[in-house]
């Protein structure tokens, strides 16, 4: 068998402290998973089942990096998020088993064309154009699970040009990693290489070309992204 052209390289993420790379298969994202963020988006943070959207695997960007300001938006937003990486296939997982399917964790930014997302939301259309654009998923080097202190507590924060914009604790997640990954696995068979961006706390807001975003999760990882010129 011969491909009609050379297949694209598999997207991947750096692994902290090594030259090894984590091959990315899919990127799942959880919507509105912190109460204060649900409220700032004009929604009531009830315990409705979590909902998901996706980004293409090749939206992933190693950091530190300069990410171009994307086209077709005047309102690019930062969303700092815990990212978990799946290392073992599974479906219909029990919450108690989710941990054995995790390869590692890190911190990422769910870059969002907020104007396009809200227009789509208001019209009942898909979110893809607001969420799944090129370079929309910068991720810090992954930390293998043995070195991850916790995915259920720890300060998560993001600053723009040194000014704190988002600050919360992973304990504030409405749906914990064990809960939402178990629920996700009822709809999709999870596979090694899947990433899950687990939702953002309150304080989302716009960035413009030249802004420097830094963020992290205490004891886990830090991320550093410069917003570049318009693509
Ligand atoms: Mn998000």
Structural commentary:
The structure is a single chain. This protein is mainly beta and 231 residues long. 13% of the residues lie in helices and 35% in strands. A 6-stranded mixed β-sheet has the order 4-3-15-8-9-12, with helices on one face. A 5-stranded mixed β-sheet has the order 6-18-17-13-14, with no helix packed on it. A 3-stranded antiparallel β-sheet has the order 10-7-16. Strand 13 (155-160) and strand 14 (163-169) form a beta hairpin. The longest helix has 11 residues, at 177-187. The mean pLDDT is 96. Bound molecules: manganese (II) ion. Manganese (II) ion binds at residues 29, 79, 81, 110, 197, 199-200.
Shape, per Cα inertia axes: globular
The helicity comes to 10-25%
Structural class: mainly beta
The biggest beta sheet is recorded as: 6 strands, mixed
What is the gyration radius calculated from CA atoms? 17 Å
Ions, cofactors and other ligands present here are: manganese (II) ion
Mean pLDDT: 96
End-to-end distance, in Å?
37 Å
| SSE pattern | EEEHEEEEEEEHHEEEEHEEEE
Number of helices: 4
β-strand number: 18
* Neighbour order of strands in the largest sheet: 4-3-15-8-9-12
Regions with pLDDT < 50 over 5+ consecutive residues?
A: none
Strand share of the residues? 35-45%
């Amino acid at each position: 068998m011969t491909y009609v052209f050379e297949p694209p390289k598999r997207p991947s993420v750096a692994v902290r402290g090594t030259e090894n790379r984590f091959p990315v298969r899919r990127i799942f994202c959880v919507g509105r998973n912190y109460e204060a963020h649900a409220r700032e988006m004009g929604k009531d943070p009830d315990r409705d089942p979590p909902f998901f959207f996706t980004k293409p695997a090749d939206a992933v960007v190693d950091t530190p990096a300069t990410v171009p300001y994307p086209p077709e938006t005047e309102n690019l937003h930062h969303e700092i998020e815990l990212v978990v990486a799946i290392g073992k296939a599974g479906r219909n997982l029990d919450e108690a088993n989710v941990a054995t399917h995790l390869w590692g964790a890190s911190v990422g930014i769910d870059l969002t064309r907020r104007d396009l997302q809200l227009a789509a939301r208001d019209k009942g259309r898909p979110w893809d154009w607001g969420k799944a654009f090129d370079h929309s998923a910068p991720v810090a080097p992954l930390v293998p699970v043995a070195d991850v202190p916790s995915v259920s507590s720890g300060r998560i924060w993001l600053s723009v040009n040194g000014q704190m914009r988002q600050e919360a604790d992973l304990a504030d997640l409405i749906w914990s990693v064990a809960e939402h990954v178990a629920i996700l696995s009822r709809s999709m068979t999870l596979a090694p290489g899947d990433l899950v961006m687990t939702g953002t706390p309150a304080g989302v807001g716009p960035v413009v070309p030249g802004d420097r975003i830094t963020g992290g999760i205490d004891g886990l990882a830090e991320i550093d992204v410069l917003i570049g010129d318009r693509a």
